[in-house]
Amino acid sequence: MISLPDLLRRFRRVWLPPGAALARVAPPVDVSARLRAELAPVLQAIAEMQRGAATVRADAEREGAALLETATREAAEAVRKAESEAPAARAAAAEEARQAVEGEIEAASKAARTEAARIDAASRQRAPALVERVCSCVLDGRGLES
User: Fold this and answer.
1) Of 146 and 68, the one with more pLDDT
2) If you average pLDDT over every residue of the chain, what do you get?
3) Where are the domains of the chain?
4) Confidence class for position 27, pLDDT limits 50, 70, 90
5) Cα separation of 88 and 91, whole Å?
6) For residues 50 and 56, what is the distance between their CA atoms, to the nearest angstrom?
7) Contact partners, residue 34, CB within 8 Å, separation at least 6
8) How far is Cα 89 from Cα 116, in angstroms, rounded to an integer?
9) 0.70 exceeded by the pTM?
């Protein structure tokens, strides 16, 4: 970085009036060499940052490739595992569905048996009275008005 006295010396020619004062200030001999020397640390720092960035980029690409390879391998293994477990899972699902249907059939059968028992009990209560009435109608001839 340029020092303050060097900076002031660089611009002194603009501030000084022409004449005797100007004669005491010697203009720089090689301006481009002086500028190169002044910019050299900045350019070196930029070059170092670029090298560091290239190193970081290369490391990141290697790490990314390794992660991608690992993920691909794990995904392929998961697919193979799922494919090998699929028949057993399908069989388990079919068995579960069969058991659910059998449960529904058993529940419907139980409800039907309960209803049949209710109807049988009701008919046992009513049947004797109904048989008695039918017998009396047949024996008396009632209800044959047609």
Assistant:
1) 68
2) 84
3) 4-134
4) low
5) 5
6) 10
7) 28
8) 40
9) no
Q: Which of 49-63, 86-100, 124-138 is least confident?
A: 124-138
The pair of structure tokens assigned to 45 is 């720092």
Token duo for residue 142:
């009632």
Q: How far apart are CA 101 and CA 40, in angstroms?
A: 86
* pLDDT greater at residue 37 or residue 91: 91
**Comparing C-alpha atoms, which of 16, 14, 10 is closest to residue 38?**
10
Of the candidates 92, 86, 116, 112, which has an alpha carbon nearest to the alpha carbon of residue 100?
Answer: 92
Q: Give the list of residues 6+ apart from residue 9 with CB closer than 8 angstroms, or none.
A: 25
| Contact yes or no for 50/56 (Cβ under 8 A) | no
Q: Which two tokens stand for residue 124?
A: 């046992």
Q: Find where tokens 């008005």 sit.
A: 145
